[in-house]
Amino acid sequence: MRRFRALYVAGVAAAAGLAAAALASVVLLVIGASPWATFATMFGGPLRDLYGASEIAVRAVPLTLVALGVAISFRSGILNIGAEGQMQVGILASTAVALALPRLPGTVLLPLSLAAGAAAGAAWGGIAGWLRARLDVNEILSTVMLNYIAAQLYGFLLRGPMIDPDELMTGSGTPQSMRLPRGAWLDRLVPGTRLHTGLLLALALAFLVWLFLWRTTLGYRLRAAGEEPRAARYAGIRVERSLVVAMLLAGGFAGLAGSVEVAGVHHRAIEAISAGYGFGGIVVALFGALHPAGIVPAAAFFGLLLFGANMTQRSAGVPGNMVLVLEGVMILAIVSAGMYVSNPYAQERALRAVRRILRPRGDAPGAAPGPATGEGGP
Amino acid sequence: MNPPAPEPIRELALEGITKRFPGVLACDRISVTVRRGEVHALVGENGAGKSTLMNVVAGLYQPDQGRILVDGEPVRFRTPAEARARGIGMVHQDFMLVPGLTVAENVALGLRAAGPRLRLDLDRARRSVAEVAGRHQLPVDADAPVWQLSVGEQQRVELVKTLCLGARLLVLDEPTSALTPQETDDLLARLERMAAELPIIFISHKLNEVKALSHRVTILRRGAVVFSGDTGRKSTAELAALMTGHEVRQARNDGGGASGRVVLEVTDLKVRADRGHLAVDGLSLELRAGEILGLAGVSGNGQRELADALAGLRPVEAGAIRIAERDLAGALPRRFIEGGMGYIPEDRHHEGIVPGFSVTENLVLKDVGRTAFSRGPFLRLGAIEENAARLRDRFDIRCASTAVAAGSLSGGNIQKVILARELARAPRALVAVYPTRGVDMGAAEFIHGQLLSLRASGAGILLVSEELEELMALSDRIAVVYRGRILGVLEGPAASRERLGRLMAGVEG
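ok -> structure tokens follow
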């Protein structure tokens, strides 16, 4: 049985891969692109050199941070869809702090700026948590609405009060803030690439989130409240409070993701900086089974997809939107494969089918299926 | 035109059925023969293999070894549809009905396979329902939406549906578990008549029903047959002993009622139900150390709201709940726990445990913050594991490992997890709400024994129950609740079924 299980998992994975490739090929052939060249660029391209690997990691950092927060919130029974907005207010806050205190030494300014971003994101998420705990406002509704507000606020501040004075002087009017003072930058990890020390921060936090959720009393209580609020309440856990705590943490992680992106990559607040990481992070969190050990590789995989899509668009001549379609196909294939792997009935059906094939007709019907798997009777 | 009633199966024989799951031998060479004209009871405790065996018969599982013969002819069911085509009609414990559809529509769902693919032939379904209902005296309204029917009526609909789909033999999996006593009597009477028409396999662990209904009985224990023969040859006690593997005695309160100090005092309590009316309306009671106070009453007379209020889970409108001299009415659950209250809730799957958490985690649900299980903000995993191992042995919690999800255990074992957690905290007072409802005989016996030994150790227990046997066997005093207040309190020995019954019906005196 165990041997069959391994074969089964491998078979499902292979089938999913083939199905995804076949579907994607159809899409590509319809638009007149070569499937082979596209796949080679998408997966081979980013992994060909150090630069490609570093770009994957650059994208994985914010995805990991957002996903860690999302995992905390989902595990605590509150669905944070507002990471995008929380990132934006985080970016605004850390940019404002860094620009307001340019003379502080880097050892103070950088942590202060990151903390400001996390705090702003936490506050933004906390609103939704409080509304749910106090007034039972559905958090999906409130976080999505808060996303709209944050997006408008972000656009307004970058076009108005926080716009770089140079942009006004030259008249180009690109909506972006002034460049942050050097002290507020995250160092480059690998010279010549954009990879920054935020990667180490993200990995350390992944470990800490695991420690928090599975090794502390507060984490235990949050998970209990998320898993079965009625039992948690009966056991003396204050479920409403844990919802607020979870949203503060989730917002904090999203805000920090924004701050790290500014301090590590762009060094100023620009439009579209969050680049959909707020939503991508939710997919990464679910993909990584809401567990840090799954989230880190999932973020790397999505980083590969994002960067591969970028390269495909440039070198294989496939429109960027089509690449999104391919990504969707792949994600569906992987999710479906997961369902098959975890479904014991599907496995039993497969086992029967295999036995039928291996044992030609001629058996008495109803006879024992025998020790085909080396697991026969005594 | 209706097809004539299908010829019933004359004989269903299972020969040496063996089914393994990883780590478990669910069925161990089981042989059973069921013949026309008989009700064959299949009894055993949870996990004895009854359901696995019937799932093999119904085509949900394939046996690892052994064979099935219908009327002497070997058959092989690869899918439930194949079993159905051979006339095996299974009625599951949880009804398989679509609540929003009418009875006829539900039947049509199953008939679809036999009729034209795209046309919904509701008339045919309706005719079929009327015909089957008439033949078997199972009155159902074909056009009633299922959600409007009582549980007993839904049970009838399930039977009619199964028969409409061509059942020539019925398998009923614990059909009475959700029924009221009246509905149960009604169902048993109907089944008795139906037995003349077609063979019935009746799965149950309620031995009085088995005695009343079945002609022959097969008893399973740990996947193997321990007895098979005429029901009339064994007494209920003998059946119970065979089923559990040991003599079953109803644990009894040996009297000598303690008159210790008052541990829980409820005065003029008023609590609202979810729908807003006063479900507890001026209720007062007193629980002393070292006694079991039974709270009898038909469910729905304020028991749930009272129990919620005693755990701090429901706001209190008026009145006092004094625990150790302090009024806690309306306080947070935490305060009740700290005051030494234990609680075995009615809904054990959702209030008693966190189903997705492991048994280990559930055993410290109320105590993770205590220094025994945490150091600063961190959990002491070693101590938590040790606690689980100890309680598992002491309370005989049957699980492959304490790392499995508590929600995957049987009802009786879930109840033992809850009992273990509550009793390990050495409560001053314990509120136990329907503690043995739906658990098998062995587990019930164990739970009763534990409650009595908690009483002996000096705690007060408020036992909320509908079962008079249980109340009379365990209680020092029995209070009867009716419409949210106590109608009368009887001393244990003075309580007769008749007096309790009258009080529960709201008749004073």
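Residues 11-244 of chain B form a domain with the Rossmann fold fold (CATH 3.40.50.300).
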